[in-house]
Amino acid sequence: MKKVLIITYYWPPSGGPGVQRWLKFVKYLRGYGIEAVVYVPENPSYPIIDKSLEEEIPEGIRVIRKKIFEPYSIAGIFSKKDTETISAGIIQKEENQSALQKAMLYIRGNYFIPDARKFWISPSVKFLKKEIEDGHYHAIITTGPPHSLHLIGLKLKQALAVKWIADFRDPWTQIGYHEKLKLNDSSRKKHEKLEEQVLNAADHIITTSFTTKEEFSSKTSQPVTVITNGFDTEINRNNSTKKQFEIAHIGSLLSGRNPDSLWKALQELIKNNKDFKDYFRLRLAGKVSDEVLGSIRKYDLQHFLENEGYVNHARAVKLQREASVLLLLEIDSEETRGIIPGKIFEYLAANKPILAIGPKNWDAEKIISKTNAGKVFSYADASEIKHHIESLFRKYLKNEQMSTSHNLEQYHRKSLTEDLANLIKQV
């Protein structure tokens, strides 16, 4: 049995999609002859807590913990709400930012490079050197964001010549929110230099998207492999629906993911179709920005809204399977083409039609098209979105099957872990 050390910031009781990837890999790696040891912060500042995920940690897994200094805990003294939203990645448009928010973003972007967890790098390297030397590890794996963890891997690689796999759940310098961090030229160059060092030093690089693979392959000659996120539940074969025609978005809904065209289409359908008005419900579950809620009120949709706030993972899965249509949104920009939201895979398992709105040439479109799981639109496609919802609603009224997806098993976490295990053994 080969042994690997996984260095991650997000681990139960952290909630949200960031923790799911490696929690599930750890769950299945033993079945492929690999024993995982997990290194995490002892006192992290998680923006979302979901204690139910602690029950999913495999029995007997060794978890090593080391204290971390969290600047967000100090920033919270000045504004707990602003600190939590920025930490969670919810950044408002500049014209809606307070002076305090602008200052916090500038400090975060230019003084905490690559991110606010940079203070965990040196203590972790010092601590892990002995662990790796004594532990007979086949390889170490770092996963980011936060990308500070890749610098832990870089320094361990330089010190010990250990085999190292760098897993990128998101891009680095091309990540969507970088432009909002008010980076000066010097800070931008520091990010680019650190990214270059990591990409050229790692023995293998994993990305979760095809676009990020293309980007990294243009920057390094090291091997780059796509292993997407996935689902870990049975595929839903129950096509029964609620009494309402419910369009649901499960997960954080940031300011940039605010589809004016969708809200407009829904308003028109409500106005012109009495049956739609009687049956329609909009359900949101997760952190939702004030700007999104403002747009919903602007189009007079608040009367049809069920806003649950953050829910634990079990509740999220239940809501996905109860919905009539699942809404998938991504920021409309060139930088977000390579973002495949983790929720898409649980949406696939829910086996309900996906209504996706995002950038042109979006990686998520490849998955939705490959599995015939729904339709993808741009933010400008108000008329097409309206007609598609009308079509789905007609099927709903006739009690016809709305989802015709197929080939979903390839995205099960167990299947994806087999790909990971083969990669680890080859490093």
UniProtKB/TrEMBL annotation:
Pfam families attached to this UniProt entry: Glyco_transf_4 (PF13439)
Keyword Aminoacyl-tRNA synthetase part of the UniProt annotation: no
GO biological process: lipopolysaccharide biosynthetic process
Transmembrane segment boundaries: none
InterPro entries: Glyco_trans_4-like_N
An annotated Gene Ontology molecular function: glycosyltransferase activity
Keywords: Transferase
Domain Glycosyltransferase subfamily 4-like N-terminal, residue spans: 111-234
Keyword Transferase: yes
Gene3D superfamilies in the record: Glycogen Phosphorylase B
Protein name: Glycosyltransferase family 4 protein
Organism: Christiangramia sediminis
Organism ancestry: Bacteria, Pseudomonadati, Bacteroidota, Flavobacteriia, Flavobacteriales
